[in-house]
Amino acid sequence: MQLTHSTKLQLHYYLENSSHSMDALARNQCESEIIAIVQEVAKALNTHIVIEAEARKEGGLRDVLTFVNANVAVISVVVSVVGIVISRIPTTDPELEHLQKEDLKLSILERKARLANLEKEIEEDNLSQDTVEKVAELVDSNYKVVTRKSNFYKQLNSTPKVTKVGINGLDSDGEEAFKEAMVERTDFKRFILHSNVLPVHVEENAIVEIISPVLRSGRHKWKGLYEGESISFSMNDKDFKQDVLSEQISFTHGAAIKCVLHIHRKIDEVGDIVITGYSVDTVIENGQDESFNETLQGKKYRHQKALKSAQQDLFASN
């Protein structure tokens, strides 16, 4: 099915008791989140658009954003993708770990193929709904989009007057380009992230230069250099920590460890990834400069990893 051109995005807030007014701060915040999502979609499509606000309309409350400074077909894609992303109700809770797995399923080649197909259809002025749906998948697990969408529905959920919200595209004359998609108040919570904590990122052969070890018992942070950055980290390798406390291991200038480094991360309020801390799970080797000695726990770790890898190869070949 060919896509109808649209140059405007309409947000329709349905209000209780046929009201025509809502909390101004809530409305402005909602508009801000939608604009941020539009910008992320445009960025994913390697385009730049100018967003203009039209005079607000009643009938509930309607906000209309007009997009200019780009090919009308590209604008139509942006409007349609934003409409899909905002209105498609998640089938599962929008947990970041699940979103990360979904995002990884799309290879770089698949992403390029989808965008190449989109560019071809735009050039031929033959945009299809199927292509737009596939492009929507590219941005639907984007952390910034997911966070902004969560913020949008969190704000609506905290505004009791709003009973539902409608999203659709309009053509240059303000006529409906595609049917209004409705999200009922009972579904607002399904868009809201329950946690902003990302799955732990694991670097299995991280080299950390030791700046300040902890030479006493307790939960004090070590200090080190990792990839040129100064970091504080928890030493969770009990065996290595005990060897340090018992002075079986000492540190001189240039001392470093090769380790399994856990990088703890979260998503901030605008969808950026922020590192919240570091921890060393296992010290694999200990030494300095180019001279490292394998630890007993490092040897055990590598042995278990080799067994696991061999087991996976065995299952893969069956």
Count of domain modules: 2
Cα-atom radius of gyration: 26 Å
Helix content: 25-40%
The biggest sheet, with number of strands, parallel, antiparallel or mixed sense and barrel status, is: 6 strands, antiparallel
Protein name: PilZ domain-containing protein
Keywords: Membrane, Transmembrane, Transmembrane helix
Features:
318 residues; alpha+beta; 6-stranded antiparallel beta sheet; 5-stranded mixed β-barrel; 8 helices; 29% strand; elongated; PilZ domain-containing protein; membrane; transmembrane helix; transmembrane
Task: Tell me about this structure.
This protein is of the alpha+beta class and 318 residues long. It has 2 domains: 8-191, no CATH class; 201-317. The chain is 38% helix and 29% strand. It has 8 helices and 12 strands. It has helices spanning 24-44, 72-87, 96-105, 108-123, 129-140, 143-157, 238-245, 296-317; strands at 8-15, 50-53, 57-58, 61-68, 162-170, 181-184, 201-212, 222-226, 229-235, 255-267, 273-288, 291-294. The strands form 2 sheets. Strands 1, 2, 3, 4, 5 and 6 form a 6-stranded antiparallel sheet that branches. A hairpin with a 2-residue loop joins strand 8 (222-226) and strand 9. Helix 2 packs across helix 5 (129-140) and helix 4 (108-123) runs antiparallel to helix 5 (129-140). The two termini are 43 Å apart. The mean pLDDT is 88.
Short description:
The chain is an alpha+beta fold and 318 residues long.
Topology:
Blueprint: E1 8-15, H1 24-44, E2 50-53, E3 57-58, E4 61-68, H2 72-87, H3 96-105, H4 108-123, H5 129-140, H6 143-157, E5 162-170, E6 181-184, E7 201-212, E8 222-226, E9 229-235, H7 238-245, E10 255-267, E11 273-288, E12 291-294, H8 296-317
Parallel strand pairs: 9-11
Antiparallel strand pairs: 1-4, 1-5, 2-4, 3-4, 5-6, 7-8, 7-10, 8-9, 10-11, 11-12
